[in-house]
Amino acid sequence: MNNKLILFISFIVLFVSFLNFAGEKKTVAVLPFVARGYIENADNLINMVDDLFTSSLTIYDIFNVVERRFLHKVLEELKFQKNDLFDEKTTTKIGNLTGADIVIMGNVTGFEDKYYFSFRGIDLNSGVALFAQKIAFPSKDYLVNRKIYDMLLKATKISTNINNNKHRVAIPLFGYKGEDFDPIFTELLTENFIISMIESREYNVVERGEIDRAMTELKLQMEDLFDQNNMAKIGSLKGANVVIVGEIKEFEGNYSISATGIKVENGVRAFSRSNSEVIKDKNSLLYMVDEMGNIELAKKRRNAELKELEKQKKEKNTSGTSAGFNKIINEAEKRRWYTDFTGQKHLLFIKNNFNQNFKV
User: Fold this and answer.
1) In this structure, are residues 245 and 260 in contact, taking their beta carbons and an 8 Å threshold?
2) What's the CA gap between 87 and 7, in Å, rounded?
3) CA distance 8 to 194
4) Tens-place pLDDT, residues 112-161
């Protein structure tokens, strides 16, 4: 057999091997979900959510899913607690013992009259979030319906690769200034913003547990992040080149919120996002922060709202009724549409005026 033929066969073997490798599914370990806030029978509910979500993920068939009982044995050996912050050393051990490339972490939060469900897929090698999803339900009944998780996974932009050309951002827990402080609400607001940032795919978002742990080790509070030396410390620990500092302000039931991206290397403001007028209720603030984290989502909501308003306007003009309809349209333009799984449309009294300089 001549050398050219040997080289050709070797090339074919290597090429086929590459295709097989590229087509391999990555392995995912679904860590136990965490209950937060005000939930009755939380442990039983979370166990069921774990089962249903893992079943949906297995049926979805885009990952190899680590068997739950095997994973729980590994977690017991590592003395892993549900409420542990994301720890790089522990998760690396989980990956080594289970063969997982990705861990999925999630929460169920009971707040006021709603239940908020969210999850994030974290790359074990880098600590960067690959994908995420969130939704709010009016009842716990939704959480024990597996079809909900089927729908959520299909709606999630699943990614298993990291674009290293994007900036790596760290997002600590938002600060709160006001009398009506609620730690559950602050946690939920921060979570919504982070997941929206992950969904936007604008940046590589470092898992927040890593940042919280770094801040604990460095004995830093939120206000300390405005010190460029402190940001540089976090950046050097976790490889982030932008730290996003979020702040909620409350005065006599009026709320405002802002998120400021600050470059680690020089302390220069990279971007700023905030609401243009005060918000009167916490639910509106939660939907507002979705748009702060994901500008494309804000644009889609605006376009959907305007189309709906135009449709209503045409219907009214055709029927020849409602003399003051233009005034109603103008008022409604301050609002946001969103649709939940019940199919109901809700109007939220939110008006946005984002700064245009979003890019770092």
Assistant:
1) yes
2) 46
3) 49
4) 888 999 999 999 888 889 999 998 888 888 898 888 898 888 888 888 87
Residue 18, SS3 per DSSP: helix
Residues forming beta bridges with residue 123, ordered by sequence position = 102
pLDDT in tens, 189-208: 999 999 999 988 888 998 88
Residue whose C-alpha is closest to residue 110's, from 41, 175, 212, 179? 41
Taking every pair of C-alpha atoms in the chain, what is the biggest distance, in angstroms? 90
Question: Residue 17: CA atoms inside 13 Å, Cβ hemisphere, count?
Answer: 6
Tokens of 167: 């900036």
Map out the domains of the chain with their CATH numbers: 26-160 (3.40.50.10070)
- Residues 144, 52 contacting (CB under 8 angstroms): yes
Task: Measure the CA–CA gap between 171 and 204, rounded to whole angstroms.
Answer: 11
pLDDT over 70 at 266, yes or no: yes
DSSP-assigned states of every residue in 159-182? -----TTSPEEE--PPEEESSS--
Residue 126 near residue 162, CB atoms below 8 Å: yes
Distance between CA atoms of 359 and 167, rounded to whole angstroms?
Answer: 10
**Cα–Cα distance between 113 and 79 in angstroms, integer?**
34
Question: Which tens digits make up the pLDDT trace of 67-92?
Answer: 988 988 888 888 776 655 566 677 77
Give the span between the Cα atoms of 5 and 2, in whole angstroms: 6
What CA–CA distance (Å, rounded) separates 107 from 96? 24
Query: Can you tell me whether residue 279 is helix, strand or coil?
Result: strand
Residues composing the chain: 360
Two structure tokens written together for 360? 């770092």
